[in-house]
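Hey,

The postdoc asked me to send both predictions to you directly instead of through the lab channel. I've kept everything plain text so nothing gets mangled by the mail client. Protein one:
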Amino acid sequence: MFAVVAAASAFVGPREGTLLWRATPRHSLSTSVMHMHAGVLTRREFAASLMGMAVMPALLPVEVLAESTLVTRQQAYSRYVPRIERGRDYWSTGLKKAIASGDWGTIKTALEKKGSIDRIFGPMELWASSYSSKTISPKTLEMNAAIDELREAAADLQAAASGTEAGGGMFSFITGPKKMDESKRITLANAAYTKGVSAINTYIDLGNDGLGMQFTQLDTID
């Protein structure tokens, strides 16, 4: 508020930066409450000037606001998209190879915190959020839904990599978790891989939609 008053005072008043209030004598209030002498603002005029300054941001050209939005999107794209592409590439190559060879240790490592698979989720969430402002946009919600589907695929991969099934019966605390046979692990892992490909491709298609010529569209997994 002080900044607004100071800004207003720079344009009025007999001395730069000074606002003077001048009221008529008490006996003349019946005809005029406040009046303006040369270089002096009345209360009404001062309030009107503040209101005019308050609405100035709303009158900014649309181009200025659009440019600000574009800069924000450029920053998000530069920061998060390369990391998303690295995660996509690992899913389509490194993970696929590990499943084919039954390399469960490599898959477990990729699923750990900061692993090759785990590292994709943060950037995906942040890039999706860049399409929202004060309220969450439908596009962000759809991209988040694709991320949830990818998380489900990662959970299935985790189960396959661990080689144990959930539950195990009422005596599982004695016998331990039920082990999953190798063929079942491979089948579960392949299904998780396919589900993950679908989730990643859906996410990328949503991100590419309306991306603009300023950006390079992301490739999906074949």
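Protein two:
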Amino acid sequence: REAVRATGAAAPDGAHLAAAMLSASQTMGAGASCADGDAARAATAPGVSTSAVAREQRAEALTYAHQFQMFAMRASVLSNELADTHQQLEGAKVKVGTAGAVLAHLSADVEAARAQLEAAQRELEVVTAQEAEQAGKMEELRAREAELAAQADMIARALDPLRAEMDKARLLALSLDPTVDLDDGGGVADGDANRRELASAGGGPAR
């Protein structure tokens, strides 16, 4: 009986409550057996009335009833808490499923973006190589351009005095014989044109 009362006073919760209820039920069973034995002995013991035994049994029954109500109340609280926990668990499962779907979608997007990035990287490498090749060609063409420009300038510097000498020789030839044919590399010059050029140069009258 003392074990049952101590169990009730402790007011256990959760797993401790289940263990306490099991212990209490065992203790109560043992106590009930002892109470039956005590009651039987009290009934047969001299000087003990039947009403006294009944009052003692009634008091013990009320104690057990109080313990039962206490356990029932705590069991009801835990049952409600368990139901709430199950409801929250179902909500958590739904959220986990939704989060998993979003994660899968994002993972697919990441893979697609990674593939596009790799393709863009390969394309970048190709066009970068082409750009470098074209830049090399550009440098070669610029060098050739500069070379040809220098060559043209050198030829022009060499040609200018030669043309001056050609003009001088032509004028001298025409001054001596206006009918002489002069070939400058483009064909035989016209005699009349030579005479007119000589006259305009002051080398003699045109005929």
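Summary for protein two, as requested: The chain has four helices and no strands.

Thanks,
C.
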